[in-house]
Amino acid sequence: MAANPVTESGLDLSWLNLYDEPTSAVPGKKGLTLKEINLGKYADDRRGLGDMTYRTRGAIPRPGAQRFGPNYQKKADVWSENCVMLYEEATQRQWSSARDIPWETLEALPDEIERAMCQLCTMLTEVEFIAGDVPGQWMPFVSAQDFEAGLFLMSQIMDEARHTDVFRKRALANGGGLLAQGAGLGLRTLIEARDFTEMSVLMHVQAEGFVQSMFRMGELIGQTDADKRIFRMSAQDESRHLAFGVMHLKYVLDTEPDRREEIHHYLDKAEGDAAGGGSGDVTFPPVFESLCLLLGGGADKFDEGLQKFLLLRKRQINEYVHRLGVAGLGDRRDRLGPLMAQFLDPA
Amino acid sequence: MSTGEALARAREGSQVPQDARDKARELGWDDDLIDLAVEKGHSLAIIWQALKGGVTGAQAKEFLVHGQSAAPRDFSWMKVPTEWGIRAKAADPALGLAIGDLNVGTYGDIPDVWTNRSEIARGSYPNPLNEDMGYTIFEKAVVWADCCVPLYEDAIRDRWVSATDLNWAGLEALPGDLEKAVCQFMTEQSERAYFVGALWSGWLPDISYGFLELKLFLSTVIYDLARHSEAFRKRALSNCGGLGLQAPTDYSRVAQEARSFIELAAVLFVQDSMLYTLFSQGDQFAQNDLERQMYQLVAKDRARMRQYHVERLKHFLFKTPDRRGEQDLYFARAEAKMVKDWGDSAVWEPLAILLGGGRDKIAQGQAKLQELRKLQVQNYVQDLKDATFTRTHLNGRMKDMLA
Asked: Is B88 touching A (CB cutoff 8 A)?
């Protein structure tokens, strides 16, 4: 269809003749969500070939449309079956670090405990900062044919911004401050990924999984109601990111089983000598020691904290392996890197 | 086999790998100290952690003699020389603890040039050695606008949800030509919003932590654009219509082609200013309450983007007056392509139909569109002026629109 052929009257109006399938999505219980408009020729299962433009799925191609550079052409490259639902959940569950955290409940803590909390928050604000950059890096490569995956990543960018800000706020709100920078913590691995699935497995499944396991122990780590709520709210967001990653991996393994070894290869590298991206490397004293202090309740209860810390690591690793199993990579259990394997329960 | 692997294997047999013993000797541990630690119930993992953490023989002995664990415990991170004793308070209790409230003492010092190439949080104590994380933007003048600090919290406060905040159930059938015009407009705007969201996203990894608040604000912009994209798509698919012809690509390609953040911001200034005016005039072309409300919400979001552009440009020009002329080049390219897009029949005809009230009133609609375009250009020129920039060679067709 030509966009611009001027008729005698000076009008074209040919765009009026493009509607061959009148569509009327009906709101569901949760309003008019992406699920309700995922219908007819606009549905993800009617996805056509991508064309390297930003034409969203179902729109009529424009003759002469310029390409915008390479992006993924196959659905499996970026798709996750739950991204439609997860995006809407993200919009419903946005929260405000300014107003939804009971900052007034913060109370003066023993110096060593406050310092430990501030050190943990210093590490976390760094981790979350990278966690926003990483999906940003991949957005231009997500085809608009799979725009729901793109929308989800954009919601994740917002979530990570909030996490970056809330941990900074916590460090600066209770008589403390920021402390020592993290030691990389495997964050470079996330930025170095050169494939969306590689990135997603490392960030969504591994790194965010570890962070999620940590946040879910927030009741033990947090010393005040505000701290506990920060971990609870953040964990809720991390659950979505993690769910996206698990289901993306599942989609890849279901539809492109020949990629299994390639994915193992990424994990072999990431699990190598590191404790896992974003998890807080156990050999990095500021993270390890601050967690032990918080979990134990003080320097004099450090060993008690250490035992809980080891439980945390155990939980992180076992949940990680479980999630990989849900995604269809159950055989990872037998290939897990040694620094992780030591915490793995028997099958 | 790495020591870690050896340890993992040894775990089952409780045999201490030679690598660990070698490392222990290197650190001055007595030969029997590892065995003593094992006897005291410390796992091989913990012992290896202590070795890797550089615990000396004397320290290890001290720990074990006193019945403590062999884990390293130096707490030196507690004593790093960062500013301590910060108790940020909400300046506006109704808004809560905002990121602006954190900018106290050295934590509020946003440097003109940020030098750290890692992801270090501004104000924390740097590691002596860091890998380069690949950031490319280290100059405050390039990205910064003071307004990004309050705008971030405003964006969060003003969030809306297309699924539930718009009354979809109240949509009523429109005459076919009007519905198709709505759908064509939505198709174009959904694509434009999605594209710009992806574009901004791709620039995030370039911006260093020195300008944290700006990155946070841009994250809200990206999220706003995601919401606009899906809201427009929902409207196109909810009232007996569908998606129409994809958007023209000329303007968007210019944005995509930007070689620097400065160029990108200049190019997007043009569209963001124009779209703010367009949506703030949404009452003129809305066909029902849902669209009216949607355009108002979109305009509110876009007002923040517009404010950022104006203040960023103003700040940039103040800091780098020698680059004033260069901006003209970017504006000229963007204006030319925007005007080209505006001349596309699938762009202007739907608007003319909506403004006129039907296909049979497209002539009246065209007249209204002319007025609307005039207002868009007027506001755009004013936005530039507010940023202390006078456009000396405004695009000729835009100039005609002002007549």
From this structure: yes
Q: Is A105 on the interface with B (CB under 8 A)?
A: no
> Are residues B305 and B200 part of one domain?
yes
Tell me how close the Cα of B13 comes to any Cα of chain A, in angstroms. 13
Percent of chain B with pLDDT over 90: 80
Residues 6+ apart with CB under 8 A from B79: none
* Domains identified in chain B, total number: 2
Same domain, B69 and B184: no
Residue located via tokens 């949607």 = B294
Closest-CA residue in chain B for A339? B4
Query: Is the alpha carbon torsion for B202, B207, B211, B212 positive or negative?
Result: positive
Chain B within 8 Å of A176 (Cβ-Cβ)?
yes
- Name the minimum distance, in Å, from the CA of A188 to any CA of chain B: 7
In a domain, B333, yes or no: yes
B199 contacts in A (CB within 8 Å)?
Answer: 140
Assess if residue B85 is contained within a domain.
no
Apex CA B20: angle with CA A183 and CA A299, to 5°?
50
DSSP reduced 3-state for B195: helix
- Whether residue B208 sits in one domain with residue B292: yes
Chain A neighbors of B370, CB-CB under 8 A = none
CB pairs A-B closer than 8 Å: 384
State whether B382 and B253 are in the same domain. yes
Given B57, B74, B91, the domain boundary residue is B74
Is the domain of B58 the same as that of B146?
A: no
Report the chain B residue with the minimal C-alpha distance to residue A24. B238
> How far is the C-alpha of B130 from the C-alpha of A106, rounded, in Å?
34
Examine the domain organization and report whether B285 and B385 are in the same domain: yes
- CATH 3.30.70.120 is held by the domain A75-341: no
Q: Which domain holds residue B41?
A: 3-74
Residue B67, φ and ψ in degrees, nearest 5: 75, 20
B161 and B58 together in one domain:
no
Q: Is A73 on the interface with B (CB under 8 A)?
A: no
Give the pLDDT confidence of A112-160 residue by residue, as tens digits.
Answer: 999 999 999 999 999 999 999 999 999 999 999 999 999 999 999 999 9
* B187 lies within 8 A of chain A by CB: yes
* ipTM surpasses cut 0.85: yes
Q: Which residues of B touch A163 (CB under 8 A)?
A: none
Q: What is the DSSP letter of A275?
A: S
Structure tokens given for B116: 């750290």
Q: Is residue B155 part of a domain?
A: yes
- B37 CB-near residues (< 8 Å, 6+ apart): B46, B47, B60, B64, B70
Which band of pLDDT confidence, cut at 50, 70 and 90, is reported for residue A60? very high
Q: Do B8 and A339 touch (CB under 8 A)?
A: yes
Q: If you measure CA to CA, which chain A residue comes closest to B123?
A: A178
Digit-coded pLDDT (tens) for B13-48: 456 778 888 888 888 888 788 888 777 666 676 677
Q: Is residue B23 part of a domain?
A: yes
- Residue B351: CB atoms within 10 A of its CB come to 23
Domain residue spans of chain A: 75-341
CATH of the domain at B361: 1.10.620.20
Same domain, B310 and B179: yes
Mean pLDDT by 10 residues, chain B (403 residues): 46 65 86 78 68 72 58 84 96 95 95 94 91 95 98 97 97 97 98 98 96 98 98 98 98 98 98 98 98 98 98 98 97 98 98 97 97 98 98 96 94
